[in-house]
Design a protein that fits this description.
The structure holds two protein chains of two kinds. By secondary structure, chain A is mostly helical. Chain A has one domain (3-242). Chain A contains nine helices and no strands. Chain A is globular and about 55 Å long. The two termini of chain A are 22 Å apart. Chain B is α/β, with parallel strands linked by helices. Chain B has one domain (4-249): Rossmann fold. In chain B, a hairpin with a 2-residue loop joins strand 5 and strand 6. Classes of the chains: A mainly alpha, B alpha/beta. Chain A binds chain B through residues 1, 5-6, 9-10, 13, 16-17, 20-21, 76-77, 79-82, 84-92, 243-244, and chain B through 64, 67-71, 88-89, 92-93, 95, 97, 99-108, 112, 116-117, 119-122, 124, 146-147, 155, 162.
Chain lengths: 244, 251
Protein backbone atom coordinates (compact mmCIF):
# COMPACT_ATOMS: atom_id res chain seq x y z
CA UNK A 1 0.00 0.00 0.00
CA UNK A 2 0.92 3.60 -0.27
CA UNK A 3 3.16 4.28 2.75
CA UNK A 4 1.90 7.84 3.07
CA UNK A 5 -1.61 6.44 3.18
CA UNK A 6 -0.60 4.20 6.09
CA UNK A 7 1.02 7.12 7.91
CA UNK A 8 -2.15 9.17 7.60
CA UNK A 9 -4.39 6.30 8.74
CA UNK A 10 -2.29 5.69 11.84
CA UNK A 11 -2.16 9.40 12.68
CA UNK A 12 -5.90 9.66 12.11
CA UNK A 13 -6.47 6.67 14.37
CA UNK A 14 -4.44 8.24 17.20
CA UNK A 15 -6.08 11.65 16.83
CA UNK A 16 -9.56 10.12 16.70
CA UNK A 17 -8.86 8.20 19.89
CA UNK A 18 -7.58 11.37 21.54
CA UNK A 19 -10.58 13.38 20.38
CA UNK A 20 -12.80 10.84 22.14
CA UNK A 21 -10.81 10.16 25.30
CA UNK A 22 -9.14 13.58 25.68
CA UNK A 23 -6.67 11.81 27.96
CA UNK A 24 -3.62 13.60 26.56
CA UNK A 25 -5.33 16.97 26.16
CA UNK A 26 -6.62 17.16 29.71
CA UNK A 27 -3.39 15.89 31.29
CA UNK A 28 -1.01 18.05 29.26
CA UNK A 29 -3.01 21.28 29.45
CA UNK A 30 -3.51 20.94 33.18
CA UNK A 31 0.12 19.97 33.81
CA UNK A 32 1.51 22.76 31.62
CA UNK A 33 -0.69 25.40 33.21
CA UNK A 34 0.39 24.30 36.69
CA UNK A 35 4.06 24.33 35.62
CA UNK A 36 3.80 27.84 34.18
CA UNK A 37 1.98 29.04 37.29
CA UNK A 38 4.45 27.52 39.75
CA UNK A 39 7.47 28.87 37.87
CA UNK A 40 5.89 32.33 37.67
CA UNK A 41 5.38 32.19 41.41
CA UNK A 42 9.01 31.09 41.91
CA UNK A 43 10.37 34.01 39.86
CA UNK A 44 8.73 36.38 42.31
CA UNK A 45 7.83 39.93 41.40
CA UNK A 46 10.93 40.84 39.41
CA UNK A 47 9.48 41.89 36.02
CA UNK A 48 12.82 41.58 34.20
CA UNK A 49 13.41 38.08 35.52
CA UNK A 50 9.86 37.15 34.61
CA UNK A 51 10.20 38.40 31.02
CA UNK A 52 13.58 36.75 30.50
CA UNK A 53 12.38 33.49 31.95
CA UNK A 54 9.13 33.35 30.00
CA UNK A 55 10.33 31.21 27.10
CA UNK A 56 12.35 28.93 29.38
CA UNK A 57 9.22 28.30 31.44
CA UNK A 58 7.24 27.68 28.25
CA UNK A 59 9.67 25.01 27.08
CA UNK A 60 9.86 23.37 30.51
CA UNK A 61 6.07 23.10 30.50
CA UNK A 62 6.09 21.75 26.93
CA UNK A 63 8.84 19.22 27.69
CA UNK A 64 7.08 17.74 30.70
CA UNK A 65 3.76 17.72 28.89
CA UNK A 66 5.47 16.04 25.94
CA UNK A 67 6.52 13.10 28.09
CA UNK A 68 2.93 12.58 29.17
CA UNK A 69 1.72 12.87 25.60
CA UNK A 70 4.25 10.35 24.23
CA UNK A 71 3.62 7.80 26.98
CA UNK A 72 -0.14 8.08 26.42
CA UNK A 73 0.23 7.75 22.67
CA UNK A 74 1.27 4.08 23.04
CA UNK A 75 -1.15 3.29 25.86
CA UNK A 76 -4.14 2.60 23.62
CA UNK A 77 -1.99 0.37 21.41
CA UNK A 78 -1.10 -1.82 24.37
CA UNK A 79 -4.71 -2.50 25.34
CA UNK A 80 -6.35 -5.68 24.10
CA UNK A 81 -3.35 -6.63 21.96
CA UNK A 82 -3.97 -3.84 19.43
CA UNK A 83 -0.26 -3.17 18.84
CA UNK A 84 0.39 -6.87 18.31
CA UNK A 85 -2.34 -6.94 15.68
CA UNK A 86 -1.07 -3.75 14.04
CA UNK A 87 2.46 -5.11 13.79
CA UNK A 88 1.25 -8.38 12.31
CA UNK A 89 -0.15 -6.44 9.35
CA UNK A 90 2.02 -5.61 6.35
CA UNK A 91 2.54 -2.04 7.50
CA UNK A 92 6.03 -0.56 7.09
CA UNK A 93 7.47 0.10 10.55
CA UNK A 94 8.51 3.57 9.45
CA UNK A 95 4.85 4.29 8.67
CA UNK A 96 3.84 3.24 12.18
CA UNK A 97 6.48 5.56 13.62
CA UNK A 98 5.64 8.48 11.34
CA UNK A 99 1.92 8.11 11.94
CA UNK A 100 2.34 8.20 15.70
CA UNK A 101 4.85 11.03 15.34
CA UNK A 102 2.46 13.07 13.24
CA UNK A 103 -0.34 12.75 15.79
CA UNK A 104 1.95 13.45 18.73
CA UNK A 105 3.60 16.41 17.05
CA UNK A 106 0.22 17.87 16.12
CA UNK A 107 -0.96 17.69 19.72
CA UNK A 108 2.27 19.17 21.10
CA UNK A 109 2.37 21.98 18.57
CA UNK A 110 -1.24 22.87 19.31
CA UNK A 111 -0.39 22.88 23.00
CA UNK A 112 2.63 25.12 22.34
CA UNK A 113 0.50 27.57 20.38
CA UNK A 114 -2.00 27.71 23.26
CA UNK A 115 0.69 28.10 25.92
CA UNK A 116 2.60 30.85 24.09
CA UNK A 117 0.10 33.69 24.75
CA UNK A 118 -0.55 32.24 28.21
CA UNK A 119 3.16 32.42 29.05
CA UNK A 120 3.39 35.86 27.50
CA UNK A 121 0.55 37.16 29.62
CA UNK A 122 1.59 35.43 32.82
CA UNK A 123 5.21 36.53 32.61
CA UNK A 124 4.64 39.98 31.13
CA UNK A 125 6.57 39.13 27.98
CA UNK A 126 5.25 40.99 24.94
CA UNK A 127 5.13 38.38 22.19
CA UNK A 128 6.22 40.21 19.04
CA UNK A 129 6.91 43.35 21.05
CA UNK A 130 10.63 42.60 21.01
CA UNK A 131 10.63 43.64 17.36
CA UNK A 132 9.66 47.20 18.20
CA UNK A 133 12.26 47.26 20.98
CA UNK A 134 14.94 46.13 18.55
CA UNK A 135 13.97 48.69 15.93
CA UNK A 136 13.72 51.42 18.51
CA UNK A 137 17.15 50.62 19.88
CA UNK A 138 18.60 51.41 16.51
CA UNK A 139 20.13 48.05 15.98
CA UNK A 140 20.88 49.04 12.44
CA UNK A 141 19.01 46.15 11.00
CA UNK A 142 15.95 48.12 9.97
CA UNK A 143 12.48 47.61 11.34
CA UNK A 144 11.29 44.09 12.09
CA UNK A 145 7.59 43.52 11.76
CA UNK A 146 5.99 42.04 14.91
CA UNK A 147 4.04 39.68 12.71
CA UNK A 148 7.30 38.26 11.36
CA UNK A 149 8.62 37.76 14.88
CA UNK A 150 5.45 35.94 15.88
CA UNK A 151 5.59 33.82 12.73
CA UNK A 152 9.19 32.80 13.42
CA UNK A 153 8.29 32.15 17.03
CA UNK A 154 5.48 29.83 15.96
CA UNK A 155 7.92 28.15 13.56
CA UNK A 156 10.35 27.70 16.44
CA UNK A 157 7.65 26.05 18.52
CA UNK A 158 6.77 23.76 15.61
CA UNK A 159 10.42 22.82 15.02
CA UNK A 160 11.11 22.36 18.73
CA UNK A 161 8.06 20.21 19.35
CA UNK A 162 8.94 18.17 16.23
CA UNK A 163 12.40 17.41 17.61
CA UNK A 164 10.93 16.61 20.99
CA UNK A 165 8.23 14.37 19.51
CA UNK A 166 10.78 12.54 17.33
CA UNK A 167 12.65 11.44 20.44
CA UNK A 168 9.64 11.04 22.71
CA UNK A 169 7.67 8.76 20.36
CA UNK A 170 10.77 6.67 19.67
CA UNK A 171 11.62 6.11 23.33
CA UNK A 172 7.98 5.69 24.32
CA UNK A 173 7.79 2.88 21.76
CA UNK A 174 11.00 1.40 23.12
CA UNK A 175 9.70 1.33 26.68
CA UNK A 176 6.05 0.60 25.86
CA UNK A 177 6.24 -3.05 26.84
CA UNK A 178 8.33 -2.52 29.96
CA UNK A 179 6.81 -2.55 33.42
CA UNK A 180 8.84 0.50 34.53
CA UNK A 181 8.07 2.45 31.35
CA UNK A 182 6.80 5.56 33.12
CA UNK A 183 10.01 6.06 35.08
CA UNK A 184 12.32 4.90 32.29
CA UNK A 185 10.92 7.12 29.56
CA UNK A 186 12.09 10.51 30.92
CA UNK A 187 15.39 9.05 32.12
CA UNK A 188 16.17 7.75 28.65
CA UNK A 189 14.86 10.58 26.53
CA UNK A 190 15.80 13.78 28.37
CA UNK A 191 19.57 13.48 27.88
CA UNK A 192 18.97 13.06 24.16
CA UNK A 193 16.45 15.84 23.87
CA UNK A 194 18.54 18.49 25.68
CA UNK A 195 20.08 19.93 22.46
CA UNK A 196 16.58 20.42 21.05
CA UNK A 197 15.39 22.20 24.17
CA UNK A 198 18.47 24.43 24.38
CA UNK A 199 18.20 25.51 20.76
CA UNK A 200 14.45 26.07 21.07
CA UNK A 201 14.82 28.15 24.26
CA UNK A 202 17.62 30.26 22.73
CA UNK A 203 15.71 30.92 19.51
CA UNK A 204 12.54 31.79 21.43
CA UNK A 205 14.41 34.08 23.84
CA UNK A 206 16.11 35.89 20.98
CA UNK A 207 12.70 36.62 19.47
CA UNK A 208 10.76 37.57 22.58
CA UNK A 209 13.60 39.34 24.36
CA UNK A 210 14.96 41.55 21.60
CA UNK A 211 13.34 40.56 18.33
CA UNK A 212 16.81 39.64 17.12
CA UNK A 213 15.89 37.70 14.02
CA UNK A 214 19.49 36.96 13.01
CA UNK A 215 20.24 35.31 16.32
CA UNK A 216 16.92 33.49 16.24
CA UNK A 217 17.58 32.20 12.71
CA UNK A 218 20.96 30.86 13.78
CA UNK A 219 19.41 28.87 16.61
CA UNK A 220 16.48 27.85 14.46
CA UNK A 221 18.81 26.46 11.79
CA UNK A 222 20.58 24.45 14.47
CA UNK A 223 17.22 23.26 15.75
CA UNK A 224 16.13 22.12 12.29
CA UNK A 225 19.50 20.40 11.87
CA UNK A 226 18.92 18.44 15.08
CA UNK A 227 15.42 17.57 13.83
CA UNK A 228 16.81 16.16 10.60
CA UNK A 229 19.49 14.11 12.35
CA UNK A 230 17.05 12.70 14.88
CA UNK A 231 14.47 11.99 12.18
CA UNK A 232 16.93 9.92 10.17
CA UNK A 233 18.29 8.04 13.20
CA UNK A 234 14.84 7.30 14.64
CA UNK A 235 13.43 6.18 11.30
CA UNK A 236 16.34 3.81 10.72
CA UNK A 237 16.28 2.38 14.24
CA UNK A 238 12.54 2.22 14.89
CA UNK A 239 12.02 -1.15 13.26
CA UNK A 240 14.42 -2.65 15.78
CA UNK A 241 12.29 -1.17 18.53
CA UNK A 242 9.11 -2.95 17.48
CA UNK A 243 10.36 -6.02 15.63
CA UNK A 244 10.61 -9.32 17.41
CA UNK B 1 12.89 -36.20 19.78
CA UNK B 2 12.35 -34.15 16.72
CA UNK B 3 8.83 -33.92 15.48
CA UNK B 4 8.30 -34.09 11.77
CA UNK B 5 4.85 -33.76 10.40
CA UNK B 6 4.32 -33.41 6.69
CA UNK B 7 0.65 -32.68 6.22
CA UNK B 8 -0.15 -33.65 2.68
CA UNK B 9 -1.06 -31.71 -0.39
CA UNK B 10 -4.43 -30.14 -0.72
CA UNK B 11 -6.50 -30.66 -3.82
CA UNK B 12 -5.53 -27.35 -5.34
CA UNK B 13 -1.82 -27.46 -4.60
CA UNK B 14 0.22 -26.90 -7.76
CA UNK B 15 3.02 -29.39 -8.32
CA UNK B 16 6.32 -27.97 -7.11
CA UNK B 17 4.69 -25.14 -5.16
CA UNK B 18 6.16 -24.49 -1.72
CA UNK B 19 4.20 -25.69 1.28
CA UNK B 20 1.98 -23.13 2.96
CA UNK B 21 3.96 -23.61 6.15
CA UNK B 22 7.42 -25.11 6.38
CA UNK B 23 9.32 -25.48 9.65
CA UNK B 24 12.82 -26.91 9.89
CA UNK B 25 14.59 -27.49 13.19
CA UNK B 26 12.60 -24.66 14.73
CA UNK B 27 13.71 -23.78 18.24
CA UNK B 28 12.24 -21.10 20.48
CA UNK B 29 12.22 -20.47 24.19
CA UNK B 30 11.95 -17.80 26.83
CA UNK B 31 15.07 -18.45 28.87
CA UNK B 32 14.16 -21.83 30.36
CA UNK B 33 13.75 -25.13 28.54
CA UNK B 34 12.86 -24.50 24.91
CA UNK B 35 9.15 -24.29 24.23
CA UNK B 36 9.76 -25.53 20.70
CA UNK B 37 12.73 -27.88 20.59
CA UNK B 38 13.64 -28.31 16.96
CA UNK B 39 10.36 -29.02 15.26
CA UNK B 40 9.82 -29.84 11.59
CA UNK B 41 6.50 -29.42 9.90
CA UNK B 42 5.15 -29.12 6.39
CA UNK B 43 1.58 -28.01 5.83
CA UNK B 44 0.42 -28.06 2.24
CA UNK B 45 -1.66 -25.31 0.73
CA UNK B 46 -5.37 -25.58 1.44
CA UNK B 47 -5.14 -27.69 4.58
CA UNK B 48 -6.72 -27.07 7.96
CA UNK B 49 -4.42 -28.12 10.78
CA UNK B 50 -5.40 -28.03 14.44
CA UNK B 51 -2.72 -27.54 17.06
CA UNK B 52 -3.58 -29.14 20.34
CA UNK B 53 -1.71 -29.22 23.63
CA UNK B 54 -1.69 -28.11 27.25
CA UNK B 55 -1.21 -24.51 28.36
CA UNK B 56 2.35 -23.37 27.77
CA UNK B 57 3.02 -26.12 25.24
CA UNK B 58 3.99 -23.64 22.53
CA UNK B 59 0.90 -23.32 20.35
CA UNK B 60 0.75 -19.54 20.60
CA UNK B 61 4.52 -19.31 20.28
CA UNK B 62 4.39 -21.26 17.03
CA UNK B 63 1.61 -19.05 15.64
CA UNK B 64 3.47 -15.87 16.67
CA UNK B 65 6.62 -17.14 14.98
CA UNK B 66 4.66 -17.68 11.78
CA UNK B 67 3.07 -14.24 12.13
CA UNK B 68 6.62 -12.73 12.35
CA UNK B 69 5.99 -11.49 15.88
CA UNK B 70 8.76 -13.70 17.29
CA UNK B 71 12.14 -14.70 15.90
CA UNK B 72 13.24 -18.32 16.00
CA UNK B 73 16.25 -18.96 18.21
CA UNK B 74 17.37 -21.61 15.72
CA UNK B 75 16.03 -23.20 12.60
CA UNK B 76 13.75 -21.53 10.16
CA UNK B 77 10.11 -21.08 9.30
CA UNK B 78 8.65 -20.25 5.91
CA UNK B 79 5.18 -19.26 4.84
CA UNK B 80 4.42 -19.95 1.19
CA UNK B 81 8.17 -20.03 0.60
CA UNK B 82 8.93 -16.76 2.40
CA UNK B 83 11.23 -16.77 5.40
CA UNK B 84 9.59 -15.28 8.50
CA UNK B 85 12.77 -13.39 9.47
CA UNK B 86 14.36 -12.31 6.21
CA UNK B 87 11.12 -11.78 4.28
CA UNK B 88 8.89 -10.73 7.14
CA UNK B 89 6.94 -8.16 5.13
CA UNK B 90 6.17 -10.72 2.42
CA UNK B 91 4.96 -13.12 5.09
CA UNK B 92 2.71 -10.46 6.64
CA UNK B 93 0.99 -9.84 3.33
CA UNK B 94 0.12 -13.55 3.16
CA UNK B 95 -0.92 -14.18 6.73
CA UNK B 96 -3.97 -13.10 8.71
CA UNK B 97 -3.98 -13.69 12.43
CA UNK B 98 -6.65 -14.08 15.05
CA UNK B 99 -4.96 -13.56 18.40
CA UNK B 100 -6.26 -14.57 21.81
CA UNK B 101 -6.92 -10.90 22.48
CA UNK B 102 -9.16 -9.11 20.05
CA UNK B 103 -6.52 -6.64 18.92
CA UNK B 104 -9.03 -3.83 18.43
CA UNK B 105 -8.84 -0.22 19.56
CA UNK B 106 -11.37 0.44 22.31
CA UNK B 107 -11.85 4.12 21.48
CA UNK B 108 -12.82 3.31 17.90
CA UNK B 109 -16.08 1.75 16.79
CA UNK B 110 -16.23 -1.75 15.36
CA UNK B 111 -16.67 -0.31 11.87
CA UNK B 112 -13.73 2.09 12.30
CA UNK B 113 -11.51 -0.74 13.49
CA UNK B 114 -12.37 -2.77 10.41
CA UNK B 115 -11.82 0.18 8.07
CA UNK B 116 -8.43 0.76 9.69
CA UNK B 117 -7.49 -2.89 9.24
CA UNK B 118 -8.58 -2.93 5.60
CA UNK B 119 -6.72 0.30 4.86
CA UNK B 120 -3.49 -0.77 6.52
CA UNK B 121 -3.55 -4.11 4.76
CA UNK B 122 -3.71 -2.23 1.49
CA UNK B 123 -7.35 -2.97 0.77
CA UNK B 124 -8.30 0.65 0.21
CA UNK B 125 -11.74 1.95 1.03
CA UNK B 126 -14.44 -0.69 0.69
CA UNK B 127 -17.37 0.19 2.96
CA UNK B 128 -19.56 -2.51 1.46
CA UNK B 129 -17.04 -5.24 2.25
CA UNK B 130 -16.86 -3.96 5.81
CA UNK B 131 -20.67 -4.00 6.06
CA UNK B 132 -20.78 -7.56 4.72
CA UNK B 133 -18.14 -8.70 7.21
CA UNK B 134 -20.01 -7.08 10.10
CA UNK B 135 -23.22 -8.74 9.00
CA UNK B 136 -21.54 -12.11 8.66
CA UNK B 137 -20.36 -12.06 12.27
CA UNK B 138 -23.61 -10.61 13.60
CA UNK B 139 -22.32 -7.20 14.60
CA UNK B 140 -24.38 -4.92 12.35
CA UNK B 141 -26.37 -3.46 15.21
CA UNK B 142 -23.24 -2.69 17.23
CA UNK B 143 -21.07 -1.64 14.30
CA UNK B 144 -20.95 2.01 15.30
CA UNK B 145 -20.58 1.46 19.03
CA UNK B 146 -17.15 1.94 20.56
CA UNK B 147 -15.33 -1.34 21.01
CA UNK B 148 -14.65 -0.55 24.67
CA UNK B 149 -18.36 -1.23 25.22
CA UNK B 150 -18.18 -4.64 23.51
CA UNK B 151 -18.26 -7.90 25.45
CA UNK B 152 -15.33 -10.27 24.98
CA UNK B 153 -17.46 -12.39 22.66
CA UNK B 154 -18.29 -9.36 20.52
CA UNK B 155 -14.60 -8.45 20.37
CA UNK B 156 -13.84 -11.94 19.15
CA UNK B 157 -16.53 -11.61 16.49
CA UNK B 158 -15.01 -8.32 15.41
CA UNK B 159 -11.62 -10.02 15.14
CA UNK B 160 -13.25 -12.70 12.99
CA UNK B 161 -14.70 -10.01 10.73
CA UNK B 162 -11.23 -8.48 10.35
CA UNK B 163 -9.83 -11.90 9.55
CA UNK B 164 -12.29 -12.41 6.72
CA UNK B 165 -11.52 -8.97 5.31
CA UNK B 166 -7.78 -9.65 5.23
CA UNK B 167 -8.10 -11.88 2.18
CA UNK B 168 -4.89 -13.68 3.14
CA UNK B 169 -4.05 -17.19 1.91
CA UNK B 170 -2.90 -18.35 5.36
CA UNK B 171 -4.91 -17.97 8.55
CA UNK B 172 -3.39 -18.34 12.00
CA UNK B 173 -6.12 -18.70 14.61
CA UNK B 174 -5.25 -18.73 18.30
CA UNK B 175 -8.11 -20.00 20.46
CA UNK B 176 -10.80 -18.88 18.02
CA UNK B 177 -13.58 -20.49 20.06
CA UNK B 178 -12.69 -18.77 23.33
CA UNK B 179 -15.27 -16.31 24.67
CA UNK B 180 -17.81 -17.27 22.01
CA UNK B 181 -21.27 -18.67 22.57
CA UNK B 182 -22.42 -21.80 20.74
CA UNK B 183 -23.62 -19.76 17.77
CA UNK B 184 -20.29 -17.97 17.64
CA UNK B 185 -18.39 -21.25 17.73
CA UNK B 186 -20.47 -22.53 14.84
CA UNK B 187 -19.61 -19.32 13.01
CA UNK B 188 -15.91 -20.10 13.47
CA UNK B 189 -16.45 -23.60 12.09
CA UNK B 190 -18.29 -22.14 9.10
CA UNK B 191 -15.51 -19.61 8.45
CA UNK B 192 -12.87 -22.32 8.61
CA UNK B 193 -14.88 -24.50 6.22
CA UNK B 194 -15.29 -21.57 3.84
CA UNK B 195 -11.58 -20.84 4.06
CA UNK B 196 -10.82 -24.44 3.13
CA UNK B 197 -13.19 -24.20 0.19
CA UNK B 198 -11.40 -21.04 -0.91
CA UNK B 199 -8.07 -22.86 -0.84
CA UNK B 200 -6.71 -21.11 2.25
CA UNK B 201 -4.45 -22.82 4.72
CA UNK B 202 -5.61 -22.59 8.32
CA UNK B 203 -3.67 -23.34 11.51
CA UNK B 204 -5.91 -23.42 14.56
CA UNK B 205 -4.61 -23.55 18.12
CA UNK B 206 -7.40 -24.82 20.30
CA UNK B 207 -8.17 -26.79 23.43
CA UNK B 208 -11.43 -28.00 21.94
CA UNK B 209 -10.35 -31.40 20.65
CA UNK B 210 -13.78 -32.59 19.48
CA UNK B 211 -14.17 -29.47 17.33
CA UNK B 212 -10.62 -29.83 16.07
CA UNK B 213 -11.32 -33.40 15.03
CA UNK B 214 -14.49 -32.30 13.29
CA UNK B 215 -13.02 -29.37 11.37
CA UNK B 216 -9.35 -30.12 10.73
CA UNK B 217 -7.56 -32.22 8.14
CA UNK B 218 -4.92 -33.03 10.74
CA UNK B 219 -4.60 -32.59 14.48
CA UNK B 220 -1.11 -32.10 15.82
CA UNK B 221 -0.22 -32.20 19.47
CA UNK B 222 2.51 -29.96 20.80
CA UNK B 223 3.99 -31.19 24.05
CA UNK B 224 7.45 -31.01 25.56
CA UNK B 225 8.64 -28.89 22.68
CA UNK B 226 7.83 -31.49 20.04
CA UNK B 227 5.08 -32.26 17.57
CA UNK B 228 3.06 -35.41 17.34
CA UNK B 229 0.31 -36.14 14.88
CA UNK B 230 -2.62 -37.21 17.04
CA UNK B 231 -5.22 -37.88 14.47
CA UNK B 232 -6.02 -37.22 10.87
CA UNK B 233 -9.73 -37.14 10.37
CA UNK B 234 -10.56 -38.44 6.95
CA UNK B 235 -12.37 -35.96 4.80
CA UNK B 236 -12.08 -35.24 1.13
CA UNK B 237 -9.44 -34.42 0.02
CA UNK B 238 -7.67 -35.57 3.18
CA UNK B 239 -6.88 -38.90 1.56
CA UNK B 240 -3.69 -37.26 0.31
CA UNK B 241 -2.59 -36.44 3.82
CA UNK B 242 0.43 -38.39 4.95
CA UNK B 243 2.15 -37.89 8.20
CA UNK B 244 4.73 -39.67 10.26
CA UNK B 245 6.16 -38.44 13.48
CA UNK B 246 8.47 -40.51 15.59
CA UNK B 247 6.58 -43.67 15.04
CA UNK B 248 3.19 -42.11 15.56
CA UNK B 249 0.85 -42.49 12.70
CA UNK B 250 -2.29 -40.65 11.97
CA UNK B 251 -5.68 -42.03 12.55
Amino acid sequence: MNDLHAVLWIARKDLLQEARSKAVTVATVFFSAVTLGVLAFAFGENPLLMREGAMGALWVALAFAGVISAAQSWQADLEDGALEALLAWPVPRAAVYLGKLLANWGLMTALGFVLLPLAGGLYGADIGGGAATSAGAGGGGGETAPALVVAVLLGTIAAGTLGFALIAVFYAGLTANLRARESLLPVLMFPVVVPILLAAVRASNALVGSGDLDLAWAWLRLLVGFDLVYAVVCLVLFRFVVEA
Amino acid sequence: MTGSAPVGAGAGTPVGAPPAVELRGLVHGYGGPPVLAGIDLDVAVGRVVALHGPNGAGKTTLLRLLATRLRPVRGHARVLGHDVVRQAHDVRTRVATLAVYGGAYGALSGRENLRLGVALRGGGEDPEAVDRALERVGLNAAADHLVRAYSSGMRKRLALARLTLANAPVWLLDEPYAALDEQGQELVDALIAAARDDGRTVLVASHDLPRSLATADAVIEIAGGHLRVMARPTRPPAATTSASTDGESGA
